[in-house]
Amino acid sequence: MKLQKASRFALYAVLHLAGAPAKQHSTAEIAEAYGISIHHLAKVMRTLVRSGLIESVRGVGGGYRFAGNLRRTTLWDVIHEFESLESVIDTPASLVGQSAIVISGLDCVTSEIDGLIRATLDSITLKTLLRYGVESIRRA
Amino acid sequence: MIEIRPASLADGRAIVALDAEITGTDKADYWTDIIERFAETRPGLQRYFLVGTTPDDDLTGFIVGEIRAWEFGSPPCGWVVALSVSRGHRERGIGSLLLEALCEKFRGAGVETLRTMVLRNDKVNLSFFRGEGLAAGPYIELEKRLD
């Protein structure tokens, strides 16, 4: 699985904000923390605001803060704002005979894999992922 | 204050009602059979049916588990067969209390691994178990339609 840049940036931002829900962070702060493009992140932040996962705070010290439910929002809730994660097999316009069998078989396998990936991402809440991170660092 | 205790046959009606509240299906015969087989544990059976109750003995949730061994080579392992918490008592840690009580039974029986199977789109239960530290294991569930 390879996430698009927008999905990765969205996960960074939402998890960064969810990790400290009482605080506000600017786009520049988040972009610097993860070494990513501030311009690309700004577009991602607008989508996240529209989705209700984060909200913008105006005024001095303004920025963004997490607006979702840490224990209910899953990684998939964030990612599906940007992509469907459905595998695409490039196929010719008309399939007959052996090529139809091959492509149909591959479609079955990729849809099974897609389903597993989606279920996995939809089972991990932001809270659980943040805990994975803490525990992983503690073990290291 | 929630008390976790072994289920008894007297809990049957409340368990059936709680399950029907969650699943929308009344499965009285099924639960009566499960309670008879799991609640009245005998030495060596390694089956557990625990309930969480309020001080007034109202049912808030239940968990069912058993130790299974050597299915496709798996060493003895504690299975969560069912877990349910009443909608009115959620977000209070009752599921965690029930799971921990079951894990304690499994540990006492010398089991080191906890396992369960959850429907792929059952987000509530999947994220609950993930939050309790469960992750994908070494087995893959496979099935086939028989029609």
Ordered list of secondary-structure elements with their pairings:
The complex is a heterodimer of chains A (about 140) and B (about 150).
Chain A lengths: L4 H14 L8 H8 L3 H14 L2 E4 L5 E4 L8 H5 L17 H27 L2 H14 L1
Antiparallel strand pairs in A: 1-2
Helix pairs in contact in A: 1-3, 2-3
Chain B lengths: L2 E4 L5 H12 L4 H11 L8 E7 L5 E10 L8 E9 L8 H15 L5 E3 L6 H9 L16
Parallel strand pairs in B: 4-5
Antiparallel strand pairs in B: 1-2, 2-3, 3-4
What does this protein look like?
The complex is a heterodimer of chains A (140) and B (147). Chain A has helices at residues 5-18, 27-34, 38-51, 75-79, 97-123, 126-139; strands at residues 54-57, 63-66. In chain A, strand 1 and strand 2 form a beta hairpin. Chain A has six helices and two strands; from the N terminus they run αααββααα. Chain A has a two-stranded antiparallel sheet. The two termini of chain A are 25 Å apart. Chain A has 140 residues and is mostly helical. Chain B has 147 residues and is an alpha+beta fold. Helix content of chain B is 32%, strand content 22%. Chain B has a five-stranded mixed sheet with strand order 1-2-3-4-5, sandwiched between helices. In chain B, strand 2 (47-53) and strand 3 (59-68) form a beta hairpin. In chain B, helix 1 crosses helix 2. The chains are: A mainly alpha (140), B alpha+beta (147). The A-B interface holds A 71-72, 74, 115-116, 119-120, 122-125, 127-128, 131 and B 120-121, 123, 126-127, 129-131, 136.
List keywords for this structure.
heterodimer; A: 140 residues; mainly alpha; two-stranded antiparallel ribbon; 6 helices; 2 strands; B: 147 residues; alpha+beta; 5-stranded mixed beta sheet; 5 strands
Q: What would a concise description of this structure say?
A:
The complex is a heterodimer of chains A (140) and B (147). Chain A has 140 residues and is mainly alpha-helical. Chain A contains six helices and two strands, in the order αααββααα.
